[in-house]
Amino acid sequence: MKLTHETLTVAANTIRGLAMDGVQTAKSGHPGAPMGLADIATVLWLKYMKHDPSDSQWADRDRFVLSGGHGSMLLYSLLHLAGYKLPLAELKRFRQVGSLTPGHPEFGHTDGVETTTGPLGQGIASAIGMAIAERMAAARYNTSDASVVDHRTWIFCGDGDLEEGISHEACSLAGHLKLDRIVLFYDSNGITIEGHTSLALSDDPKKRFQAYNWHVLEIDGHDFDQIDRAIRKAMKVTGKPVIIICKTHIGKGSPNKQDTHEAHGAPLGEDEVRLTKRALGMSEDQFFHVPEEVYAVFSESAKKGKRANNKWRRLFKEWSQKNPALAEQWRATREDRIPADLASRLPSFDPAKPIATRSASGIVLNALAKELPQLVGGSADLAPSNMTWLKEMGEIKPGDFSGRNFHFGVRELAMAAIMNGIQVHGGFRIFGGTFFVFSDYCRPAMRLAALMKLPVIYVYTHDSFYVGEDGPTHEPVEQLAALRCMPNITVIRPADPTETGAAWVAALKNKSGPTALLLTRQNMNVLDRSQYPAAENLEKGAYTLWQNGLGTPALTIIATGSEVEIALAAAKQLGDVNVRVVSMPSQDLFEKQSQTYRASVIDPACRRRLVVEAGVSFGWGRYLGPEGDIIALDTYGASGPYKELARTFGFTAENVLAKAQALLSR
């Protein structure tokens, strides 16, 4: 079926109608962006997108990301028309509880949605991560006679996306890396919620992106010929990402609300919907109407995608037969296989040689990388401090994606969002590092990772006031409690180098959400595991490390991370008192254990409990009990040698002993 201007117009107007009707029925939503972007989306999806709605997880499909997730009715309309598992009835349930059409697109919830979007700018950065993963996979698997990785990443964004700082971080890195096979469509309609963008924006986007080393094209976003030519030009560009600046009209077709902020985030109103349909040549009395010719052209496009998928499968089969080792690695990495005996392959640490857990992590990480080809990652300009460099495994650099190490630069937020994109793309297990205090810069992307249940791993070093001389700006205090209260993120603060190895294994086994590893700058004692329980107990979240006696203790001391060793030293000075020391590296893992196990570690009959942790006391109430006490830091740190700070703030064995004796004397 030939795609004439008339056919494209009917298809684009159908999308506008579905968007208007969905938002109006829900009495909530954003009709303006879908109406403005409908022409561009129609050309892209019907003529250029390589995808197969009957196989939404096809490895070599193009990725499409709607960064301005508030315009979700555009994506839902496209997915429905294209033939994904999204019936028209679900568009009629837009923004309703339990529907497949939530207010913003959600990864894993709606067939065909590649990533969760909504917080502006996150979609751009995540899509850049997808494009990086495509280039990495191409460098790893494509051979001289077969390209089994050959897809593109398409992004729609708006003014708000580009105003957010994350767009600068991510787009700057993409340009530096000479990342190609990615096209960003900028919906330049000049409108935000408060009014015209001139209220707060006077950037020149062309100059901005040229400075990033992007290839820039400019078009009328409602001219089918210009849209078509721009996409074809973009597909020919190599060695640079492409942005197409599309001048559009928000609420396109609405007689009274086109080009106004009223079209941005509220229903047009029943009367205006009718007037708009009349102006577009549509029936005013039909709602959620899709002409048969529109279904037909999208069906033809789907058949084209199916043929492309079948062709790729034949190519992949032939490639697999010629490259069995590569094919096996492809399967192993896409399945993210973790050997059952991985813990037994970890390096050991000498109890006679104290070592920082960040250093122990680096040793463990390099050992794991040799076992797990999917493991890739980097740091926000802190690899020498985070100990996240994979030795002799190459680096990602401009135009070369064959390595396994990233230089994210001083871009924590973009790093975390790019990690999300690499993870959702598939074929890699991603980690990223920075100082723990800068987890605040990562939080928006971390929250999305938790929401999407992505198994990304954050390596957060310099985990407490023991940072020392750098002072309170670099000493995390409240960050630990803040991460613990974020649903579906597993926070682990290991007590010694051996527990650090176990923490990495636990993180890799966690396939249903992100994991944060909190590691020390200062050296720590290596516990002699011939005298203490195995470090693998870390996977239970907490365990009895030492007890001077049997049964219910008179006192339970609970500690995490670097405070475990001072808790242990204090407990051993209490003489004949039956005292238990509990290492609790992860409240999250502990709360997943049975009530019986939890009671065996923190005995309800033991009412005297002492918690020791170099962070705020918030969140420890459930473990303290009515007669408990805590050594915490409910203020900011200070600048000075860390051993002096430990004495100043009371994080010494002597102070723990005094607190314990005070509890016992009550």
Question: Describe it for me?
Answer:
Strand 13, helix 18 (497-509) and strand 14 form a beta-alpha-beta unit. This protein folds into 3 domains: 5-306, Rossmann fold, CATH 3.40.50.970; 342-524, Rossmann fold; 539-664, Rossmann fold (3-Layer(aba) Sandwich), CATH 3.40.50. The protein is an alpha/beta fold. It starts with a helix and ends with a helix. The model has no long low-confidence stretch (mean pLDDT 98). The strands form 5 sheets. A 6-stranded parallel beta sheet has the order 10-9-11-12-14-13, with helices on both faces. It has a 5-stranded parallel beta sheet with strand order 1-2-3-7-6, with helices on both faces. Helix 1 (5-26) crosses helix 2 (32-48), helix 5 runs parallel beside helix 7 (165-176) and helix 15 (412-425) packs parallel to helix 16.
What's this model, at a glance?
With 666 residues, this protein is of the alpha/beta class. It folds into three domains: 5-306, Thiamin diphosphate (ThDP)-binding fold, Pyr/PP domains (Rossmann fold); 342-524, Rossmann fold (3-Layer(aba) Sandwich); 539-664, Rossmann fold, CATH 3.40.50.920.
